[in-house]
Specification:
The protein is α+β, with helices and mostly antiparallel strands. 42% of the residues lie in helices and 21% in strands. The structure holds (3S)-3,7-diaminoheptanoic acid and zinc ion.
Length: 854
């Protein structure tokens, strides 16, 4: 298909067009005869026409299938087959549909449907991959029970549900819970397991397994503990128990995303489940714990209650992200989790929401649903749940969610169903709140204040810029958590949630002895951009005194951002008052090390570019890079006397543990090391590298050495030590590019993409190199345009193999309108080159077209 053909062919789907499927699927029985290039799939599906459907159209999705035979009630039929599926005339009474198809798992590089990864068979069906396995009504509102028979020589043959029988070359599974086809899974391979058990609170024993390739079995213990903690937590926090006899997790190396919540058989990108102190960093451990929890929690929010159609994706994803964040807050530190989540939201969701890819949390149209697994659906979707909980209160939230489970178990639901349980159980009208689901764009919240006769008044004004297809925005309900401090730093008004509903609205606090200092949007109570005329004295005051740790960090973050912006725009030296405040805070051993590490973490260069853009300036990536360097150097010099002591007191002796306290200490230790490296040319980093007995310390030391440009020996040694380990090699590939100086980054990335261990076929490896390039702000946006050109080259090469990962990586270009006209012209020409590539996929075509339409 040429580009024109792809475009002409690209159908747009609309929320408003929803119509139910006209048949019930009473049961599904599948037989797989596995062979790498010619797997046979036999299906026996019982359909019943729904009452009232006059002349039901029988259409089954099916793509890239070779139809061998089809029968209805035992008699051969000849359906009409297109590249999208088949139609067939069928009886008006219940009937048995049988089909045999042939597929090519070994030739499947898109990693969707049934494919092979490192010699094992595995599946990925969400959102629309099941149609690449057999003909089926592949839509989430069609739910049925599945029985699966797998014929294959592999030692381990797995599918959803409970095991029925197992013998040489054969396994049978039955899943008693009705599910949509996107939750189907099959795995076959010569795998080994890390087994365990879990007893639910009602006394049912569940067999647990993490299945991996031989050699990886010593990397499963942490994931297993995370799974058991998640199972207990969901019982305690939401009253939800597991509902099968067995829960299997499988690690695969080639996977388009993090993991997949298939019923009873979660499939994980190996990077999101395998962990050992020697090969995984603290960040890896944290991520693994969160993703295991996320996929497990989907068993209720996603699987037992699923989505009516893909427009409702946030129903399961926003809620499940919110649940996994609650879990992490309970397991680790709630404020550290909140600060990290907001950093991530601003880095990924805010630019999306303010750029050409902006879309509502519940979109109303799409071409390729895989392009909508976005930060907006996931992270902003989770923020909406958080706001709802804040507005109704904890007890009412729990009551409403209980009602949701009671009322909708076994159903495919909508956002309306979700909001209805809150309306019914609290009596609240959520019509205006619902705008959070339908309106795209990040609201801006302007604040003005006044004080007279003991009354302090805050006046807020909200506005949202137009987004693609939505020129006009209506006011939303915004929960604004506010506290007030007096001049001593004492709280004179504890946190109270103001409920803003109008475009402009005032709130007053009476009986105050003097004008207070406000702490606004505590815990980041709404995903908005706060605009307030303030100064560094007040920010430093809040950084020193605010009882809300999020806002304390936020004050430091604002100081850091303003300091860099002044450096970029005015060429001024780093603000002295801020350096003093930072110095005081870093030395304050009464403060949590994790918090201090977050305060020391510089704002990202992309974040500075975004802020400059928002204020009407054209960001210069080189100047932003220079400011970051100068700031870090100045801070290191200012802290010079304290750094050796701080480094020593935050260094952990003794065996590695990934717990939150140790992780926080190591985060701070790493921040100190990076500053120290600027003064000693990497001597301490080299000593740390030599002494390291865990990956966190080794990785941190290597970063320090690469930044100091004195690490070539260690860089080579690291490669030699770990070249056999894929996941560590991904880190190595990423490091080479992430820390290359701006003028060299594209060249380094181009060279490393020639390395024998680089491959387009493994998404982790592709993301390691190209993601690192896109994340190296100064390097990717270097004025030569070499970064843009290299990424475009690689995306064009990848598209014919793996459209999903290609389309996802196109987001690197979404912020292009921030930059100067020369850079815009360079990016535009690369986007146009991608768009003109022969046989461009529908996924990439949609993404590039939307970005170009900016
Ligand atoms: N539900 C999957 C994501 C599927 C992505 C399909 N392109 C993982 C998750 O959110 O848990
Ligand atoms: Zn999810």
């Amino acid at each position: 298909m040429t580009t024109d053909a792809a475009q002409a062919d690209a159908e747009t789907f609309y929320l408003k067009d929803y119509t139910p499927f006209e048949f019930e699927v009473d049961s599904v029985a599948l037989t797989f005869r596995l062979a790498p290039h010619a797997t046979r799939v036999l299906s026996q599906i019982r359909f019943t026409p729904k009452p009232g459907a006059a002349d039901p159209q029988f259409f089954l999705h099916g793509e890239q299938l070779k139809l061998i035979s089809a029968k209805i009630d035992g008699a051969a039929v000849t359906p009409e087959v297109t590249p999208q599926g088949l139609t067939c005339s069928v009886p008006q009474t219940p009937f048995l549909w049988e089909a045999e198809v042939e597929i090519d798992p070994a030739g499947n590089t898109a990693l969707e449907g049934l494919y092979m990864s490192g010699g094992m068979y595995c599946t990925q069906c969400e959102a629309e991959g099941f149609r690449k396995i057999t003909y089926y009504p592949d839509r989430p509102d069609v739910m049925s029970t599945f029985s699966v028979r797998i014929e294959g020589e592999e030692e381990v043959l797995l599918s959803n549900g409970n095991p029925v029988s197992r013998s040489q070359g054969l396994a049978e599974w039955h899943d008693p819970w009705p599910k949509p086809a996107y939750l189907f899974a099959l795995v076959a391979g010569d795998l080994v397991n890390h087994p365990d058990t879990f007893t639910t609170r009602s006394g049912k024993e569940v067999e647990l397994n993490i299945w991996v390739r031989p050699g990886d079995e010593d990397k499963c213990a942490f994931g297993m503990e995370a799974l058991k903690k998640s199972m207990t937590w969901d019982e305690e926090a939401y009253g939800r128990e597991y509902d099968l006899d067995i829960f299997n997790i499988v690690a695969v190396d080639d996977f388009n995303m993090g993991a997949m919540e298939n019923k009873g058989l979660n499939i994980f990108n190996s990077s999101c489940v395998l962990a050992s102190p020697e090969t995984s960093t603290d960040a890896n451990f944290e991520r693994i714990e969160a993703i295991i929890a996320h996929e497990y929690f989907h068993n209720w929010t996603g699987n037992r209650i699923t989505c009516r159609d893909w427009f409702q994706l946030c129903l399961k994803e926003g809620l499940t992200v919110f649940r996994d964040a609650q879990f992490t807050s309970d397991m680790r530190s709630a404020s550290v989790k909140r600060i990290s989540d907001v950093i991530d939201l601003r880095a990924r969701q805010f630019p999306e929401d303010q750029g050409p890819l902006s879309h509502p949390v519940r979109p109303e149209e799409f071409q390729e649903i895989n392009n909508f697994y976005t930060a907006t659906i996931y992270e902003k979707g989770a923020e909406i749940i958080g706001m709802l909980k804040r507005l109704v209160g904890d007890a009412a939230y729990r009551k409403a969610v209980d009602l949701y489970f009671d009322r909708h178990d076994g159903q495919a639901c909508t956002i309306e169903d979700w909001l209805q349980v809150f309306e019914d159980s609290t009596g609240r009208d959520l019509a205006q709140f619902k705008r959070w689901y339908s309106q795209a764009g990040t609201p801006r919240l302007k604040v003005a204040e006044s004080f007279a006769e003991g009354t302090y008044t805050l006046t807020f004004e909200q506005s949202t810029a137009p987004t693609p297809g939505q020129p006009v925005k209506d006011p939303r309900v915004i929960p604004i958590a506010v506290g007030l401090l007096n001049d001593n730093g004492d709280e004179v008004q504890p946190t109270t949630v103001l409920e803003m509903t109008q475009a402009k609205q005032s709130f007053s606090f009476e009986g105050l002895a003097s004008k207070p200092t406000p702490s606004i949007l505590r815990e980041f109570s709404a995903p908005v951009i706060l605009e307030r005329e303030t100064n560094n004295v007040e920010r430093a005051f809040l950084l020193a005194h605010d009882s809300d740790l999020f806002n304390r960090w936020e004050a430091g973050n604002a100081l850091a951002r303003e300091a860099r912006i002044a450096m970029v725009l005015e060429g001024s030296a780093p603000d002295a008052a801020y350096l003093d405040a930072l110095q005081k805070l870093v030395r304050d051993d009464s403060l949590d090390p994790a918090f201090r590490a977050l305060v020391l973490q510089p704002p990202s260069q992309s974040d500075i570019a975004q802020t400059l853009h928002e204020r009407g300036h054209v960001p210069d990536p080189q100047k932003i890079y220079n400011a970051a360097e100068t700031f870090a150097q100045t801070l290191a010099e200012r802290l010079a006397d304290s750094l050796p002591r701080l480094y020593a007191t935050t260094t952990i002796d003794g065996p590695y543990s990934p717990d939150a306290t140790s992780t926080g200490k190591r985060d701070l230790n790493a921040r100190i090391l990076f500053l120290l490296t600027r003064l000693d040319g990497g001597q301490q980093a080299a000593r740390q590298y030599d002494a390291a007995d865990n990956m966190t310390q080794q990785h941190t030391a290597l970063i320090g050495l690469l930044q100091a440009e004195t690490g070539s020996a260690q860089n080579q040694a690291f490669y030699e030590q770990w070249k056999h380990d894929r996941l560590v090699m991904d880190k190595w590939f990423a490091l080479q590019v992430a820390f290359a100086a701006p003028q060299k980054a594209a060249q380094v990335a181009a060279k490393i993409a020639q390395h024998p261990l680089f491959t387009l076929k493994n998404p982790n490896r592709f993301r390691a190199v190209m993601g690192a390039l896109a994340g190296n702000h100064g390097g990717f946006h270097h004025g030569s345009g070499a970064g843009y050109q290299l990424l475009a080259d690689k995306l064009i090469a990848l598209d014919s193999l793996n459209p999903q990962t290609t389309a996802r990586m196109c987001t690197a270009f979404q912020t292009w309108k921030r930059y100067d006209l020369d850079r815009q012209a360079l990016i535009r020409s690369q986007l146009e080159r991608i768009k003109a590539a022969p046989k461009l996929s529908r996924d990439t075509n949609e993404m590039v077209s939307r970005i170009l339409d900016a």
